[in-house]
Amino acid sequence: MTDTRNGDAGSGGNAWHASEALIERFAVDPGEFDDAVAASLEAHLVACGDCRSAVRERVGDSVLEESWHRVATIIDTPRRSIGERMMIRLGVSESTARLVAGTPALSLASLGSIVVLAVLAVSSSRMTDSSGAFLVMAPLFPLVAVASAFASVADPVGETAVPTPLQGAGLVLRRAVVILAVVFVVLGAADLAMGDLDAPVVAWLLPALALPVGALALGTWVRAEVAATTLGLSWMTVVLGVRWMAGQHSDFADTSTFAPPGQFAAFIVLLSAAAVLLVRRDQFQVLEGVR
Amino acid sequence: MNGNVKLEGVTKAFGSLVAVDGIDVDLAPGVTGLLGPNGAGKTTLMRMVATVIAADSGRLDVLGHDPSTGSGRLEIRRQLGYLPQEPGFHRNFSAFDFVDYVAILKEWGDRSARHDEVRRVLSVVGLESVMHKRIGRLSGGMRRRVAIAQALVGTPRLLVLDEPTAGLDPEQRLRFRELLGTAADGATVLLSTHQTDDVAALCNRVVVLLAGRIRFVGSPGDLAQRADGRVWTASTRDARAEVAWVTGDGAVRHIGTPPADAQLVVPTVEDGYLLLAREADVVVVGPS
Description:
The complex is a heterodimer. By secondary structure, chain A is mostly helical.
């Protein structure tokens, strides 16, 4: 592998040096060696200043510069979050994954709080032996999560992000879709955990889509926090009002909110909100809250 | 009007407060300094030029595009570097992460080229040795430099910098002046500041904004010249002066109508600005 050469020992106190032929080949194409030879030679180069100099003399400046560039790129690559890595595995581009994962709404703390709230919703339903509590609370999770993805604090670089080419409905919707996907997985798992209480997915799914899309649409006029609060309160008013009309002791799960009339109303809200969003999407390009 | 940024009758109000009131201005390539007291409308004006907020009325033309349309905004943003007064910093981001994130937002999709650009701008502001430190651990001046670095990504044609020298120490301010001199080569730069010496050192042109209206447009020399023959020093305060303050050497510097025996001095940009503010009946709390 390596030959003994005449001359002094290397700076590391080596009694041998790599042959000139070996150094020549290494300088031209280090990739031609098998792993064992390359590792041995590299270990020697780390310890031997003379051989390092010999390699350096044979390597062109452009090759060195390119090597340093590759090293710097690897070192400088920001550490990816779990969400970012998952998105990249699913085929999302590196830059898009970074932008989407950047929102605090997708932080472990935010997602953890959604899981905790989902557990509370399931527990409440189990304690009351009815899926009503879960059905009422489930649509609020995506509402809060999506609103936090386009609120004034949603972007990790704040106002700096606003006058950039990628700022706008595209970025907001990408974040919203990812957050909704995560929240719906949590809600689906929570629904399964309800067991025999039987909270039909269709009963909470439409309101859980209509509320966040409604918040996005309303958010083209007012701040995200205001939009989410307005819709959250509206939802609770409707749910409680319908129950009151049905009789104080009715089970939420049995009210018309979660029956076909309520589902149809949620569907209409969803469609209307989507239409508004489409028409007013440019509003996401300017500073939220002061437009 | 033949500048890169043109405003005609631009107005912006927040509720009953008119922040910018029918402004006409034409910014040519070079560095334009925006002077004015707090609440004068500087940030609102800069945000409109930078497409962060929309004007209520009037016409804006920025780099040949209309910022009130989606396509116009996009074209402007592709050539813009913007430093907000209070940039947000994610506490977990390093300086590199921050600038890299903004570079992605500026459509630098290719990772290798993007990282080269991030290293370049961080080097320009002298932060290459700390670029992997978390921003939360950097000093206020360093954070400001990180924010300046992101504005330089892509060598924009238009730089809108809201108080870029706030928080910088004197040495850093000198360095900023140097780098802006390079960055502004051929570009249009609009910067706001409370530092009149920055204006004198950096700007080809100065715009003075008082209570939402433009009161002066000209060179820093022209602004200083407005106070020519109206600035004098004395050992004691003269009650007839419109503005007076004690300088570092113990003398009292006055601006106003000098007495016959006054010892007139060469006016500075600050003198011109203070006199202008006084004439417009806007209270500016002391010289900067």
